[in-house]
Amino acid sequence: MSRTTALSAATAGAALEATSIELRDLRDDDIVIDIAFAGICHSDIHQVREEWGTAIFPMVPGHEIAGVVSEVGNGVTRYKVGDRVGVGCMVDSCGECEYCKDGQEQFCTKGAVMTYNGKGYDGEETKGGYSQQVVVSERFAVRIPDALELDVAAPLLCAGITTFNPLKRWGAGPGTKVAVVGLGGLGHLGVKFAAALGAEVTVLSQTTSKEADSLKFGAVAHHATKDPETFEKLRGSFDLILNTVSANLPFDDYLSLLKPNGAMVNVGAPSDPSTFAAFSLIGGSKALAGSNIGGIPQTQEMLDFAAEHGIAAEIEKIGADKVNEAYDRVVNSDVRYRFVIDTATIGA
Ligand code: NAP
Ligand code: ZN
């Protein structure tokens, strides 16, 4: 068993501190990844602060992992030492159920094993990407195209796939009008992907402070949701609303912005229950839906699409000593647009 250095929270809400962790012995299908960069997803904060229910501590968060393969198990066929790879939110699934066979491992009937705050099928607790190394089955690694630098690719492993998946599924493309709510880590990638897919994109942000960035990322318009007139002006405008907000929203107001037959898809995951009036859906035969990350084949498709269309995350690269401060800034919507940890600084 070898060891590596990682950032760990000892208890719920505790500060992240450098610590030494064990790495499992290599199984036949395992690769060792020397992690270069790890993105900070708002989901990391929800879990470290135990906002989604009981979590496992000590916790090493991180499911936006980009690095280089440094060792391979005896049976590994897909990767070799030196390959550039990423790992997202999952590290194992049964591989046999209808969803695994269909490349939707996130719906594995046995339960997908999450990258951290989870338990492997062997009962061992999983540890995430705020770490210098990780051991993972080659089945849950994806190839990072050469056109993408590792630092700006890392956030694609969660924020990228979580927005790409519903945009594809709900038909964002030429002739559709898409609104992205919340211009944070997920939202800014949602704007870039929706625009690259050919949709006409509008950003709905709390204020106008990020307007210039919205337009730079490919949106044609940006509106402040704190201004009640926005909801009057935009009534009945959109085919699809992608909600990436980490807090609860007044759903009825947002549903009124959909055209008849339109859909509002939620990826933002606040802990409190949301409410809406049935008539907000019935009047225009509208849909209110959710979307959960994406499977491994689609994650590879998303990375290849990103490389082809020049899509990368806008990042603020930080050292390990700035992670706790970064958490507060994310919660205050003060990130442009994803913090990425340079893992070489952990414990340095
Ligand atoms: P983030 O970077 O903090 O972005 C969230 C954005 O929402 C903020 O930048 C802000 O945008 C807006 N916002 C924040 N608080 C708000 C409030 N009280 N009212 C209105 N708008 C508010 O977070 P993220 O990393 O993108 O994650 C967003 C959410 O998605 C989190 O809840 C996360 O857990 C969840 N998530 C879900 C999945 C999934 O599979 N479904 C995967 C990953 C993450 P503006 O400044 O533009 O208003
Ligand atoms: Zn995430």
Automatic annotation (TrEMBL):
Cofactor: Zn(2+)
Keywords from the UniProt entry: Metal-binding, Oxidoreductase, Zinc
GO MF entry, a single one: alcohol dehydrogenase (NADP+) activity
Entry EC number(s): 1.1.1.2
SMART domains the record matches: PKS_ER (SM00829)
Catalytic activities: a primary alcohol + NADP(+) = an aldehyde + NADPH + H(+)
All copies of domain Enoyl reductase (ER), residue ranges: 13-341
Highest taxon above the source species: Bacteria
Recorded family membership: Belongs to the zinc-containing alcohol dehydrogenase family.
Name of the protein in question: alcohol dehydrogenase (NADP(+))
